[in-house]
Amino acid sequence: RRYQVIEEIGKGGMGKVYKVLDTELREKVALKLLSPEIAADKETIERFRNELKFARKITHKNVCRMYDLSREEGAYYITMEFVPGENLKGTIRRIGQLPVGKSISIAKQVCEGLVEAHKLGVMHRDLKPQNIMVDEEGNARIMDFGIARSLKAKGITDAGVIIGTPEYMSPEQAEVEDVDQRSDIYCLGVILYEMVTGKVPFQGDTALSIAMKHKSEEPQPPKEVNAQIPEDLNLLVLRCMEKDKEKRYQKAEELLSELMKIEKGISTTERIIVEKKSKAEIPRKPYQAFLIPAIFIFVVLIAIISFLFFGGILRKGKPEADALVQADLEKKIVVLPFENLGLPEDEYFAAGMTEEITSRLAAVSGLGVISRSSAVQYDRKGKMMKQIGEDFGVAYVLEGTVRWDHGPEGKNRVRVTPQLIRTADDTHLWSTSYDRVIDDIFAVQSEIAEQVISQLGITLMEPERRGLNAKPTENIEAYQAYLRGLNYLYLPDFAEENFQMAVEMLERAVDVDPGFALAYAELSYAYSQLYHFGYDRTEECISMAKAAIDRAFELQPELPEVHMHLGNYYYYVHKEYDKALEEFAIAEQGLPNDTRIFEYKAYIWRRQAKFKESTSLLKRAIELSPQDAGITLNLAISYMALREYQEAEDCYNRSIFLAPDQTEAHAFKAMNYWMWEGDLGKARAALEQIPVKKNPLVIYFWVLQEMLERNYQAALDRLSSASVDCFEGADFFMPKAQSEGLIYQLMNKPELARTSFDSARIILEKEINARPDDPRLHSSLGIVYASLGRKEEAIREGKLAIKLYPVSKDALTGTSFMQDLASIYIIVGEYEAALDQIEYLLSIPSWQISAAYLRIEPEFDPLREHPRFKRLLKK
C-alpha cells in the first residue's frame, strides 16, 4: 500500500491522526483517518472535498499544507503536510503560562498565517492551541485549515459535531451567526490569553455553558491573572475578544502590526530565548520510573492494533522505509546559469534558458527555488558542490550548457545538456542531452523542469503541470527579443540605459508577436521602472505602461506574471498600495516561490511606514535568494531608515561582496557613514571603492562628500565632470546649475551663486510647465527661489511638494521633501519653522537625516548657535 504507519500522533472527534511514510513521494506526511460517523455522511464528505480546494491554495510558512481527501476500502482519510513538534495546548499544559516574549512570537506567526489565508478568502473557524504546532525552534504552524467549515452541524445545540471548540468559540459562532475573519481574530485573542495566563478565559460544566459565556460574560483582564503582562498587550487581548466584532481588530494585518509594536518594548533577551528543555532536564518524580516504560508499551500496542485493524489502508514501515523517514527530504534547489558554448553574442540565450527553467520550477508548490538574480550574481569559481549547497542553503543544483548552432532554415539547432546534482555528496542524479531544432526550445525547457520535479519526488497538481508546459509564444524571433529585454531589465544597477534597452527589445518582441502576453507584462514593468526612478515622468510613459499591461490582461488574464506587473504598475506609477498588494496576492498563488513578490510587498510596506514588517519580509526573500545583491542592498536601506546603522553597514558590505561592480551599494554605504557617525574619512574610502567613476550618481555623491568636507573648489571640479545637465532620482531632481549655486553660496560668492540659481530657475520652471504634479521639481524650485530672495514663493513651492507627495503617501522618500522645506526655511531665515521640520524628521524613520548628519552638513551652519538646535543635538 502507499502509506506506511510510523506512529499515531493524535486523535479527536473527527478521527485519528498518524505520521506515515508516503512511499510514492518518499516523504513523511500526516494522515487523518475520519471516524465512521463522519465518513458515512456524503454531504459532509463532499463539503470536505470542496473546502480542501480552497485550503490547498494556502502556501505559507506558518500554515500546514493540506493535500487531499481520499478513500480506500470504504474508509475516508485526509493527507496533509507532516509538521514536527508539540501542539501549543500540550506546551501550556506542560509548563503553564508562557513568557510574554514567546507568547507574542507564537501569536505573530499565527497572525501571519491568518493574513495569508484571509487574503485568499479562507477562514479557519476552529482556531485553538490544539491546532497550532510549535517546534523546538519556536516556529508555529496552523493546522486543519478548511476542515471546520465542512462539518455537518449547524451549531452547538445540534446533535452533530460542533463547528468550533467551546473554550475558543467566538460569540457569533455561539449564536450560529455568519462568521468572517474577525472570528479567527477572536479565537487568536483567546489563545493569547491562555498563553500568558496559563488558563482559558471561560470555563463551565457543559460545552453550551462555556460557549454562552463568550456571548454574555466579560473576561477577567489577563493582567489581573499575570501582573507581568504589559498593559498594551493586556488591552490588545481584550480588544481581540470584544463581543461586538465591529470593535475588534478588523483585519489580521492590523493585529499583526500591533503585536510587532508591543514586541519592541520587550527585552531582547526575553524575545530571543526560547525554552528548549529536554526530557533529561525535567526532574523525574518517583512514579515516572514505572510510568515511562508503561507508556512505551502502550504506544507499541497501539501501533500493533493499528497494523491489524487498518492493514487494508496503512502498513507498518519496513527497515528501508524507516531509513527514508530519517533522510533529509527538504526540497530546495538553485538553477545555476547555463554555460554558453556558442557564439559570445548568444550569451543572452543561455541566460534566458536559466530564467525560463527557474520560472517554471518556481511555480511548483513544495519546491524552494533560489531566484535567478541570486544565482546569476554568484561566483562559483573553485567551489565544490557541497560549498555551493551551503552558500545557497540548498540540497540540489541544476546546471548545464547551451550551444546554439546557427544554420539555414530547418538546420538551426540548439543543444542543451542539463545536470541535476545532490550537493551533500556531489551525486549526479540525472543528466541528459537535448539536440532539437530551435523551435522546440520550449518543449526542452518543460522537459527539463518535469525531470527535475520527478527526480525530487514532487507530485504536480494539474494547473502546475499545465504551467510547466505552457509556451510563452509561438514565434522564436519574438522570444529572442524578449530574452534580450529581460537581460537588460533585471540587471543589478537601475541605470536608465538598461531600462531603455529593455523597452526597445520588448517592443520588438510584441511587434513580432502581438499575442505575446508575457512580453507585454514585462514591457509595462520596464515603463513603470522608468517612471519610478525619475527617468521619464511624462504622461506618455504612464500611458505606455498602462496600455502594455491592459494588452497583457486582454490576452492572458490568468497569467500570474500579468497580475504581478499590474501590481507593479499600481505601485511604481500611482502609489496605489492596496491595489498593488491585491494583485501580488493573486500572483503569489501561481508563483509561490517567486522572490520578486516578497520584494515588491516589502517595498510597499516600508512606504506605508511598516519598516519592521518590511525588514522581516526582505529577510525572508534573502532566505530564498541569499546571493541577491539587490535585495540585500534594499535591506540595508531599510535599516538606514530605522537608524540601525551597524546592520545597514553589514548589508552594504554583503551586497558589495556579492556584486563588486555595482555603484549603489558603495554610494549608499558612504551615506550610511554620514548618518551614523558623521565619519567623512570612512565615507570617502567607501566612495573610492566605486568601480565606475563617471556615472552621474557617483559624481553626485562625490560632490556631496566634498561639500561635507568643505572642499568647495573640489566639489566644483567634480561637478564640472558630469556629462548631464540635471541629477535626478526617484526623490530628487536637481539641475547642475542649482548645485553650483549652493557651492558658490557656501564659498561666499553671491554674484556667481545668483547667476547659477537663475539658470536653474529657468530649467525648473520649464520642467514644471510640462509636469506640474512632479513634487521633485517644486521642491528644488523652492530652494532656488529661496536662494534668489523670493521668500513667499519659495515657501509656497516647498509646501506644495509636500502636499503632492506627503510622508503619509510614502514614508520612505516623502521625508526628502520635508527636509527640503527645512532647507528653504533656513535660507529665508525662518529658523523656528525649520527646526519644527527637523524635529519631526528625527522622530520618524528616515534614511536622509540624523543627529550626526546635522553636525557635519554646512547648510545647517546658520542654526549652530540656536539654543533649540543645540538641545536637539544633545537629545
Task: Provide the descriptors you would attach to this structure in a database record.
seven-stranded mixed beta sheet, globular, 875 residues, alpha+beta, single chain, 18 strands, 40 helices
Task: Tell me the radius of gyration.
Answer: 31 Å
Oligomer: single chain
Query: Termini distance?
Result: 71 Å
The average pLDDT value, as a whole number, equals 84
Strand content: 5-15%
Largest sheet: 7 strands, mixed
Helix content: 40-55%
Shape, please?
globular
Instruction: Quickly count the helices.
Output: 40
Structural class estimated from helices and strands:
alpha+beta
Low-confidence spans: 150-162, 267-329
Q: Please provide the count of β strands.
A: 18
Structural commentary:
- The protein contains 40 helices and 18 strands.
- Strands 10, 11, 12, 13, 14, 15 and 16 form a seven-stranded mixed sheet that branches. A six-stranded mixed sheet has the order 4-5-3-2-1-9. Strands 6-7-8 form a three-stranded antiparallel sheet.
- The longest helix has 22 residues, at 288-309.
- By secondary structure, it is an alpha+beta fold.
- 46% of the residues are buried.
- Helix 27 runs antiparallel to helix 28.
